[in-house]
Amino acid sequence: MSSSVQELIARAIRDRAFEPHLRWILRRARGQRTAWIVVRNEIFDRQTLEIASALLRSDSSTVDVGCHRGKLLAHFLSLAPDGRHFAIEPIPSLVARLRELFPGARVFEVALSNRSGEAKFYVFPRVPGLSGLGRRDAVVGGELEREEIRVRTERLDAILPAGAQVDLIKIDVEGAEGLVIEGALQTLRRCRPLVVFEHFRQSSTLFGVSSGDLYDLLVERCGLTVMLPRRWLRGGRGLSRREFTSSDDGFYVASPLERTRRRRVEA
User: Fold this and answer.
1) Which domains does the chain have, with CATH numbers?
2) How confident is the model at residue 56 (pLDDT cuts 50, 70, 90)?
3) Phi-psi region of 12 (alpha: psi -120 to 50; beta: other; left: phi over 0)
4) For strand 168-171 and strand 194-198, is the pairing parallel, antiparallel, or unpaired?
């Protein structure tokens, strides 16, 4: 298949609900044994960058929860060089690298949760992006090497500087997003940022937070509108509680209603 044909296909399926599945199938057809989670995360990262480009001003501030190697943080810094940027990452080796690469960002060596303390954290050396507070047995089984470390846990509300304004929060924490949001309610209500987050029912339920619980936290307690990224980018409508709790998309935006309306007008 020529590169021009591949590009046409890529454009045709872009931001469609079936895009991750079709991209994965096409790669397998070309003999690329790409893991499904890799394709899924590539699309999440791309959509996050598109959202950040549409949202951030030069002085906007961001929080990257589950910063990993800083791929998205680098773009946040380039889009908003005059803003304040906070990176959250509990894996010590990644923290050291982030501090070296991004001296303009404040890097916290913690795992965000709904309480301060300590917890077990499971690191997958070959695929660090799968690392998290959960063992992930249902996802990886016994196929990947796993290391258990102890990490400090904190609430976002407790570690952000007093009065800090936040415009964008990205959350990718392998199922613990409900705990992160519970620990960030004050920030969400005060700053009304746009939140880009990953959520899969099976992973989140392991932490005692259902999809319905998460929806209620964001919508009922914080007054945000939950949407699919592709809908936000096109100025579309939000999801009902029933639509969110039955969705298998995995990637979502929680947006203040006024920003959603503005996107609708711009679109």
Assistant:
1) 1-34 (no CATH), 37-266 (3.40.50.150)
2) very high
3) alpha
4) parallel
